[in-house]
Amino acid sequence: MSGSRQDDDRLPPPTRDPRDPGPPRITTAGAGHRAPHLLASRPDEAQDPAADRIGRDVGVVIVAAGAGTRAGGAELKQFRWVYGKPMLLHSLQTFQARPDVAVVVVVLPKAYAADPPPWLFQCDIDRLLVSVGGRERSESVYNGLEDMPEEVEFVLVHDAARPLATDAMIDRVVAEARRGHGAIAALPVVDTLKEVDEEGRVVRTVERARLWRAQTPQGFPRAMLERAHAEARRSGLSATDDAALCEALGLPVRVVRGSERAMKVTDEADFQRAEAMGMLAE
User: Fold this and answer.
1) CB-hemisphere CA count at 13 Å for 174?
2) Cα 143 vs. chain centroid, distance in angstroms?
3) pLDDT tens figures, 143-160
4) Residue 196 — φ and ψ, nearest 5°?
5) 228: which residues sit within 8 A by CB, 6+ positions away?
6) Rounded to whole angstroms, how far apart are CA atoms 56 and 52?
7) Chain centroid to CA 246: how far?
8) Helix, strand, or coil here: 42?
9) How far apart are CA 124 and CA 49, in angstroms?
10) Beta-bridge partner residues of 141
């Protein structure tokens, strides 16, 4: 299975409004074999008392390293505004609002990882890491995994192109992952499905009773996901989602109910759909 290519060579250079004072103080977290990863630090950040009661053992990788060419325009799709804020910021703030989340690793294209847009820091920057994306999605997730702190026991992987994921569906994914296997948000297929040949002629009607549309977030015990990515790198396997890497090893993955709000913004028309979807309850 081939993964989606993330070619950074065509990306526009990052720009900053000269009137903007810029983000808070940033320190280098470590270069490793890639470009430096960034750790934002603000000593006066208020601590969430709920986190002390629950314990923060969940890490999140938000994949935002694609070029987003199908959406059109010079600005990266994940940086464009939708339903009141930049698309990527929706997901970042949603996950950081959770008391069980220890850190969110945002994986950006190389051209932006060293100089992120200032609005990215409208969050709890003590729980923010910026990592450098790879040429394919699997490599981007792997890079994000490498930056997870030791206390993280469960990892959620989420696509920035799904800005309206709900807390309820995240709860379901986390709860299932805590049972020791992979969990993906998904929705059952309701349309009639047709298989067609190269000329567009219908070959057969596909039975839909057991088919689900995969969404994100997808959650896993950390050791399980790290094993899946390590094996994929050794074998040269790439996939369009992390569950497929686990499936290739025979590791258990279960579906939990997703949400229509967690639609994927792919092309220009999807921005209008997302605006309307944001006003609907789950």
Assistant:
1) 18
2) 13
3) 999 999 999 999 999 999
4) -125, 160
5) 220, 242, 245, 246, 248, 249, 251
6) 8
7) 17
8) coil
9) 14
10) none
Q: What is the mean pLDDT of the chain?
A: 85
d(CA 274, CA 143): 29
**Measuring CA to CA, which residue among 21, 60, 43, 31 is closest to residue 173?**
60
How many Cα atoms are found within 13 Å in the side-chain-facing hemisphere of 268? 4
Contacts of 62 (CB under 8 A, 6+ apart): 88, 91, 92, 95, 104, 105, 106, 107, 144, 158, 159, 160
Task: Report the DSSP pairing between strands 58-63 and 101-108.
Answer: parallel
pLDDT in tens, 93-145: 999 999 999 999 999 999 999 999 999 999 999 999 999 999 999 999 999 99
The whole-angstrom separation of Cα 200 and Cα 37 is: 47
Strand partners, 202: 196
Cα four-point dihedral sign 255, 108, 272, 277: positive
Single-letter amino acid code for the residue at 214? A
Cα–chain center distance at 119: 18
The length of the chain, given as a count of residues: 282
CATH number of the domain located at residue range(s) 24-278 in this protein: 3.90.550.10
Q: Which of 276, 169, 247 is nearest to 215 (CA)?
A: 169
Q: Where are the beta strands (DSSP E) in the chain?
A: 26-30, 37-40, 58-63, 81-82, 85-86, 101-108, 128-132, 154-159, 182-188, 193-196, 202-206, 212-221, 253-257
Separation between Cα atoms, residue 251 and residue 274, nearest integer Å: 34
Predicted TM-score (pTM) of the model is 0.82
How far, in Å, CA of 272 to CA of 84, rounded? 12
